[in-house]
Amino acid sequence: MNVRRSAAALAASAVLCVGAAPTALAAPSPSPAPVLPSGLYGKNDPTYDGVWRQSFALLAQHTVGLRPAEEAVAWLVGQQCAEGGFAAFRPDATAACDPKTMLDTNATAAAVQALKALGGQDAAVKKGVDWLKSVQNEDGGWAYAPGTPSDASSTSVVISALAVAGEKPADVKSKAGKSAYEGLLAFQLGCSAEPAADRGAFGYQPADGKLPANADATAAAALAALGKGAVVSAPSADTPAAALACPAGSADPAAAAQGAAGYLAEALKKDGHLTALTPGADQPTPDTGNTADAVIALAAAGHKQSAASALEWLKANSAAWSKDNPAALASLVLTAHATGTDPKAFGGTDLVAALNATGPAPQASGGTAQDEKKDKKKDEKDGASGDGKVWWIVGAGAAAGVGIGIMLSGRRKKNQL
Question: Do you know which InterPro entries this protein is assigned to (predicted)?
């Protein structure tokens, strides 16, 4: 899954820049919160995370065997623009996408994963995949906003989506001939990194000529390097996570994923969870979203036991963080799935019921083959076309060379502590 920030933090720090090359930065004018569509999950302002939270809510429901409400699926499909990309949220999906429509890779990748899992949305999935391929940077990676420098988190979530959709990331190449995996592995801290504890980690983006280790980017990169998406099955065998093997051999995504897992396992040992320094704070605080992502990444790499203490910490400490938050609840459902834990008894919380309560009720169980066939014949709604060449830049993050990335699972685009 990918780096997220709260909508409030994003709104406070985001600046808007239109066109292929920014000439000035100006804070966006305040606007009233949009009316919440009936098919959308969550009651908070969806301006910055509507597609993201919807995608993961539907994906989590599907993972536990539920058939999401038709109106919820239709809302997500209707958010897609004609060329295949998704914006974070379009309040009026009947209006044409235009050059001011802020298409982004993270929302698109999340939607591709959800729609592929649900089935019956092949056309929408293909359009999304084709658009993602079309905005690949020359270095093989992806940025949150097309036309800006690649970052590890966006590159990771796109690779995960491509893999889920049946693509081979090693064969997805830029116009300069760089593969998606070449773009991703360029962000890993190798055997010469100092301090040694950072070896195997991934950085989000270089800052002041350095590439700081970032736990959020590392968790996302581990999944991508393994060719996995957000849905991870609990490993049948379990081995301890190990540090990056040095000296390193030739660039290898699987070895890179194991090195990333080793870094995450070590980072979790101190407190049983990850921490982050939030803007304005002088002390790090627990980072629940990143901890959940780290647990999923470790499970994907075959290291469930290395994530055991963090899983127990999540059970005891995630209730307040996830309350009424569909993206957070979905993240925990997927964490439970990855570790073979019952999501209906997660630290005393029924995550599935809590997630369902944030939006339209899933369809009654017992869907038939006829229902499946009907779904596959549905025509997807097309948004109107637009070039989407609009950039979102986080003011403080851009100054630090960090950026914005994915939204709202509690992840933050900053150095992880």
Answer: Prenyltrans (IPR001330), Terpenoid_cyclase/PrenylTrfase (IPR008930)
Q: What is the mean pLDDT of residues 175-204?
A: 97
Q: Where are the alpha helices (DSSP H) in 64-120?
A: 70-78, 105-118
pLDDT value of position 3: 37
Determine the average pLDDT of the residues in 137-161.
98
Q: What's the domain range around 165?
A: 7-29+39-188+201-234+251-360+390-399
**Domain membership flag for residue 365:** no
Q: Is 317 helix (H, G, I), strand (E, B) or coil?
A: helix
- Does the residue 414 lie in any domain? no
Residue pLDDT, tens place only, 261-283: 999 999 999 899 999 988 888 89
b/e map of 209-244 (b: 16 or more CB within 10 Å)? eebbbbbbbbbbbbbbbbbbbbbbeebeeeeebebb
The answer to whether position 269 is within a domain reads: yes
Q: What is the pTM of this model?
A: 0.84
Domains: count for the chain: 1
Q: What is the CATH number of the domain that holds 294?
A: 1.50.10.20
Is the pLDDT assigned to residue 26 strictly greater than 60?
no
Q: Copy the structure tokens of residue 331.
A: 């993240």
Residue 20 in domain: yes
CB 347 within 8 A of CB 329: no
Tell me how long the chain is.
417
What are the pLDDT digits (tens) for 234-265? 998 899 999 999 987 668 999 999 999 999 99
